Amino acid sequence: MNTSIYAKPVMPRIIVRPALATLLLHALLIYVLTANWASMDRERIKVKPAPQVINARLVAASELQSKPKPKQEAPKPKPEPPKPKPEPPKPKPEPPKPKPEPPKPKPEPPKPKPEPPKPKAETPKPKPAPAKPAPEPAKPTPSQQSKNDALARIAQEELASSQPQQAPASAAKGELSASFVALIQRTIVNYWSRPPSARNGMECKLMVQLVPTGEVVGVTVIKSSGNAAFDSSAVNAVRKAGAFPELQQLPSAEFEKNFRRLEVIFRPEDLRY
Amino acid sequence: MKHLPLASKAIALLFSAALLVACSGSDTKEQDEAAAAAAAAAAAKSAQGAATSAEMARLEEAAMAVGNVFYFEFDSSNLTPEAINAVNAHIAVLQRNNENVRLEGHTDERGTREYNMALGERRANSVRDYMVANGISSFRIETISYGEESPVAYGTGEANWAQNRRVELKPQ
Amino acid sequence: MKQLLTVLLSVMLVMAAMSARAQLTIEISEGADNPTSIAVVPFAWQGSGAPPEDLAAVIDGDLARSGLFAPIARTDMLGRPSTEAEVFYRDWRAINAEYLVLGRVSAPEDGLLRIDYELYDVLRQSKSLTGYESGPTSDARMLAHRVADAIYEKITGIPGAFATKLLYITATRVPGGKDYSRLTMSDSDGARPIVLLETHEPLLTPTWAPNGKEIAYVSFETGRPAIYRQELATGRRQQLTNFQGLNGAPAWSPDGRSMAMVLSKDGNPDIYLMDLATKQLTQLTKHYAIDTEPTWMPDGQSILFTSDRGGKPQIYSYDLRTGKTERITYEGTYNARARVSQDGRSVVMVHQQEGRFHIAVLDLVTKRMQILTSTELDESPSIAPNGSMVLYATKSADRGILAAVAVDGEAKFRLPAREGDVREPAWSPYLSR
């Protein structure tokens, strides 16, 4: 029975090793996951025009009645551009609109150091350069649809003004992304028609695949809201948007890094309930 | 639960008493006119034996002259001075005959239909109560409300509405 | 050790992959809520003889009235497919159709009609619904409404309420003659009106039994108000009340066994409950003020009613278990005739603001009141069984008409004007086939 004496210590070792390995693995995984989440958080750019719009809706109860008046008679030929609705409130909450361009050079000079380090090895192009001109020449983009065009213009007008607010933490790179994120967001918001079964707080997460032309080539639900009609409305909003041709202005590295795959979360906050 | 009806009746009684007091207190003019009418009615009663058919004809003519429609203010079932004058003329006639009457309460078109049905009843009851207070037996008076369902003036606007807020007195 | 290393390596790879995967997250917290464009292609007729009426147009009309859909005009359609094989998504995408409806109508036997239909998601290029409806030819429009219901439910996530009925009253003036009132029942789109009762005296407060097979109303046909119940299939009717004073505002309980009503037999208007089997009455409210217009909460546990006990008409609730009364409206000086949505959350009512009467909706959870209509003399709101629309009566050029508004206040439509003053619409519950 000597063998058994020898064998015993061996057995635990065999058990311990994989156990340790899995433990380590799990710990690592957990770390990686959490770490990744954190970094994702940093990358997540929340452009939330919602609050303003919510306020506008809540306050203007009377506006609600007067607005539908024109619809009343002819509900069929609903004109696509009810865009003016969300737009007006925007300029107001952003009083520093005229500033963004001129003041930028001022606050930036004192920070020349933080900016240079940002451009990564792969992208030798200094970020600030393409970043600023981008929004402006973007205006006369090749029009794809007149609607999209109008949308794009609106979004781009917003780009400049939203920049200083959106990315206080991340610098130029983030600002550039933020501007295009705002554009994509505006467009999707305009195409999103929520079903009456939608409720505030429902959440549907999509993975949207884009190609450098800005075209949407894939939409997948990665987290369902539990309401099929709601999920469909989200998918259709992206599909209706169809393309974001303005993304062609992005440096290809930037596109590859941030825009080839986009996660889009649909979580309404402005519904009646 | 069994005590509830009694208690609520008591409360209702108290309230209605209070309401009466409040009403008569607030409308001194109304009260004066009511008193005058009551006095006239009493005088008429004492002279009943001597009443001639000529006298009766005169009273009926007076009642005809004031008409058989009594008008009200918006959302109110209080008798206006004009309405009291008109009702008095009819009371004078009713005190001398044995005819039964029907009081039809109406409202204008504003507000909800069933609520107006109740408001029309309130108006008819208000005329009835005044008549009863002046000596007409309640069993001779039938009340009914048509709410806003039987307007005399069609169309919107105060001119039309004022004509529709009314109680009509009709022979039964 | 080697194993551990490889594990570590693979973990790092995963990490890299993950960070490469999720770059940006965009949050969408609002939507423009434009109507969804849908193309309902005229259905192919596969029977013999003359085709029935245009059923695709009925569906088109239903979807348009809901305010959630923008049907595409037939003249804009690039093709008229009737089967899946004939569907070219590109044609529909080109005219910005999000959904496409195809159908075929056949007559499997004499007097019977069958609609086979499919719903296609143009953006995803897939079929999302296949179905059929069949029934008597005389009910062709109802079959079409059911197809519209199925399409509506598939896309919006809530059942459609097109295959339902409306009750309403019309009052017709006869200059120099006797006016008359009619109690009429029609489809939810106002089509196929049937007169259920005609009298020279007022009619009011038509109301549905929860099973949709009976109705109740107030008629003055005897010279006094009385509450009647009437079976729709047989026309058989019964007088339920004949009390001194008011006999009004009947409201069937959700279980169908009793009816709340207003009687003033004891002096002033109070809410009573009648057991429909025994005709026994229970007095619920006892107040010298006006208590009227009872309506049930969907759970059947409490009743909302209008009372001016606070000086002005407001909505109160009466709890049938505890007998407690609670005021529920505080905004404004006139809130009356409540109706509750099936989920028990929204109460629509007549609300006065600056001398004008509007339809307003109160959210019982948030306590928020929203005015839904902008016309001046709006009254008698009635909610669709799916809670999506509120039908109400209003005035247009001094005439009573029926109009509807979406519960969110956005979409509005009017029912086709008919003769006389139209008023007091009552939307049926869901109807069994």
Your description of this structure?
The complex is a heterotrimer of chains A (273), B (172) and C (433). Chain A is mostly helical and 273 residues long. Chain A contains 9 helices and 3 strands. Chain A has a 3-stranded antiparallel β-sheet. In chain A, a hairpin with a 5-residue loop joins strand 1 and strand 2. Helix content of chain B is 58%, strand content 13%. Chain B contains 6 helices and 4 strands, in the order αααβαβαβαβ. In chain B, strand 2, helix 5 and strand 3 form a beta-alpha-beta unit. About 12% of the residues of chain B have low confidence. Chain C is mainly beta. Chain C has 4 helices and 31 strands. Chain C starts with a helix and ends in a 6-residue tail after the last strand. The chains are: A mainly alpha (273), B alpha+beta (172), C mainly beta (433). Chains A and C meet through helix 1, helix 2, helix 3, helix 4 and helix 7 of A and helix 1, strand 1, helix 4 and strand 30 of C.
Q: Helical content of chain A, roughly?
A: 40-55%
Uncertain stretches of chain A: 1-16, 34-155, 157-171
Shape category of chain A: globular
Strand order of the largest sheet of chain A: 2-1-3
Distance, first to last CA of chain C? 72 Å
Strand pairing plus helix content of chain C: what structural class? mainly beta
Percent of residues in helices of chain C: 10-25%
Estimated share of beta-strand residues of chain C? 35-45%
What's the story with the biggest beta sheet of chain C? 6 strands, mixed
Rg of chain A over CA atoms, rounded to whole Å, is 25 Å
- SS-derived structural category of chain A: mainly alpha
Order of helices and strands of chain A: HHHHHHHEEHHE
Number of helices of chain C: 4
Number of helices of chain A: 9
In terms of DSSP E residues, the strand content of chain A is: 5-15%
